[in-house]
Every structure is written in C-alpha cells, then in structure tokens.
Design brief:
- By secondary structure, this protein is mostly helical.
- It has helices at about 5-25, 25-60.
- The two termini are about 20 Å apart.
- The chain has one domain.
- Helix 1 runs antiparallel to helix 2.
- Helix content is about 90%, strand content about 0%.
- It has two helices and no strands.
- The protein is elongated and about 50 Å long.
C-alpha cells in the first residue's frame, strides 16, 4: 500500500472523528478535541499530498 493511501485514510479518520467528539464531549473539552482533530486533518492532508507527489515522481 502506498504511503499516501495511509495518510489519506488518517485524514478521513480525522474528518469523521472531529465532529463526533463535539457530539460526545461537552464544553471546552469538546472545543479542544475538535480543534485537535481539525489540525490533524489539515496536517494529514498536506502530508498525503506531498507523499503522493513524491510517489509519482519516484516511479518516473
């Protein structure tokens, strides 16, 4: 499995888990958990893109 697929799966997990933590938790804890999952989503999407880019350049 290419590394960008694993990073894409991680970003999907963050995308799903972020809003769900807002439903399960209350108050400031929910805000921080959603913020951390949102940050994780952005980071994993960036890493997935660069991983995909490196993967495509390697095969040429």
């Amino acid at each position: 499995m290419p590394p960008y697929v694993r990073w894409s799966i991680a970003s999907i997990v963050c995308l799903i888990a972020g809003p769900l933590t807002g439903l399960w938790l209350e108050g400031d804890v929910a805000t921080w958990a959603s913020f951390l999952f949102g940050t994780g989503l952005i980071v994993t999407l960036i890493v997935a893109f660069f991983s995909w880019f490196r993967w495509t350049q390697r095969e040429k």
